[in-house]
Specification:
Layout: E1 5-16, E2 27-42, E3 47-52, E4 57-62, H1 63-73, H2 79-82, H3 92-104, H4 115-132, E5 139-145, H5 155-170, H6 180-198, H7 204-211, E6 214-218, E7 227-231, E8 236-242, H8 249-262, H9 264-286, H10 292-305, H11 310-321, E9 325-328, E10 336-341, H12 347-362, E11 366-372, E12 378-379
Parallel strand pairs: 3-5
Antiparallel strand pairs: 1-2, 1-12, 2-5, 2-6, 3-4, 6-7, 8-10, 8-11, 9-10
This protein binds adenosine-5'-triphosphate and (R)-mevalonate.
Family: Belongs to the GHMP kinase family. Mevalonate kinase subfamily.
Organism: Allacma fusca
Protein name: Mevalonate kinase
Length: 380
């Protein structure tokens, strides 16, 4: 076992195709240079401790409790068995055992406002820890992040990839160079972690946070493999604007499922229209171009799907007022929007950008002026 190790992974922006990607359409995602960083270090006592300050969670468990949980999840729930699968299986029964443990052990502070976020993070942590460390191993995990949590910038995938990278590296299952083979393993295990947080994620978020850069991603239908096309990322400057409206991705996905049940025709048309739009955007993207009008149109389709929010619409309206295109990014329902800033050095464009920034600040929004397309998960 190594000494202390540190692993970090970026967030992401979905440029086009969120939600439709869950239903097998293509989507484009690009990494963002805001990182989650996990430090792992050996402990001198028979305990496992995880500290997630971004969600105010600090838990320490004895080996006796870990062994108890290991016995409950059963003999098949361990690295050597699970890692043999290309898609690591997660049985509902295993999730239920871990959820029950988190509840009965009172791991979540009573009457916590962030109880949902804390429970999911604790379940994902334990789900990974139990599988990856076949024997209880005394470790302290500390996770810091620059990303807003639950705001559409892929905090859960970035949390997953940095945690998985740390666990696999400290247990000697991958090297510290994070070779292509190591990244493939991190991606598969980060997807496994995402299932604890999201239920049925498409896999796009863990892919882009693991490999970095830009990807055109399509989930495989009927158990088929996903397809991914890594694209040399055109340099994309964007404002990432946080509404500060909290939401969870799994809750927003449930909302879209409700529309599907109530009005299948409408839902299907929106999915198809997003699919067609993404195909157009991919064509441009391959030629190094981002089409502003498609960004705006994609936002309108997401509005029709019912996943926008008045605060998101306000940001997009302000962007339009100053001649820019924007859309919500990620699951929506709150969280973040991104506003595309085309390449221009004219004084007029700098002036309108500054006016937009002032208006966003006056309206109470936080934003980052950033370039998209950073590196993926890495050992520091
Ligand atoms: N730094 C972190 N520490 C602990 N848990 C985290 C951290 N970041 C994310 N999480 C977990 O992930 C959950 C947020 O996932 P969610 O998918 O709702 O948002 P997101 O990943 O930011 O958005 P999107 O999926 O739209 O990109 C949190 O509620 C928490 O359980
Ligand atoms: C909303 C969604 O399409 C993107 C979340 O970043 C969910 C997913 O792809 O798993």
């Amino acid at each position: 076992m190594s000494g202390k190790i540190t692993v970090s992974a970026p967030g992401k922006v979905i440029l086009h195709g969120e939600h439709a990607v869950v239903h097998f359409k293509k989507a484009i995602a690009v990494s963002v240079g805001l990182y989650t960083t996990v430090e792992v270090q050996p402990l001198n006592s028979d305990r496992v401790t995880f500290q997630f300050p971004a969600i105010a969670l600090d838990v320490s468990l004895s080996f006796d409790h870990i062994r108890e949980l290991q016995a409950s999840v059963g003999i098949d729930y361990r690295y050597s068995r699970l890692d043999a699968h290309k898609k690591i299986p997660l049985e509902p029964a295993s999730v239920a055992v871990i959820q029950d443990f988190v509840k009965t052990m009172n791991l979540i502070p009573p009457s916590s406002e962030a109880a949902g976020a804390q429970a999911k993070a604790a379940e994902a942590f334990l789900g990974l820890y139990l599988a990856i460390f076949e024997e209880p191993t005394a470790l302290l995990f500390n996770c810091q992040t620059e990303l807003p949590v639950g705001a559409g910038l892929g905090s859960s995938a970035s949390f997953a990839a940095s945690l998985v990278g740390g666990m696999l590296q400290i247990s000697g299952k991958i090297s510290e160079d994070f070779s292509l083979g190591d990244l493939e393993k991190i991606n598969r295990w980060a997807f496994f972690s995402e299932k604890f947080v999201h239920g049925s994620p498409s896999g796009i978020d863990n892919h882009v946070t693991t490999y970095g850069g830009a990807v055109v991603f399509q989930r495989g239908e009927g158990g088929k493999e996903e397809t991914t096309e890594n694209i040399i990322c055109p340099e994309i400057r964007a404002l990432l604007v946080n509404t500060k409206v909290a939401r969870s991705t799994s809750a927003i996905i449930q909302k879209t499922n409700q529309l599907r049940q109530e009005n299948l025709e409408k839902w299907q048309k929106i999915m198809d229209d997003i699919g067609t739009l993404v195909e157009q955007a991919v064509e441009g993207f391959r030629k190094n171009s981002v089409q502003a009008e498609l960004i705006q149109k994609n936002h309108e389709l997401l509005q029709q799907l019912g996943v926008s929010h008045p605060a998101l619409d306000k940001i997009i309206d302000l962007a339009q007022l100053f001649g820019y295109s924007g859309k919500l990014t990620g699951a929506g329902g709150g969280g973040c929007a991104f506003i595309y800033i085309p390449d221009s050095t004219s004084q007029k464009s700098e002036e309108s950008l500054n006016s937009l920034k002032n208006s966003l600040t006056e309206a109470g929004f936080l934003f980052w002026d950033t370039k998209l397309g950073s590196r993926g998960v890495r050992s520091l």
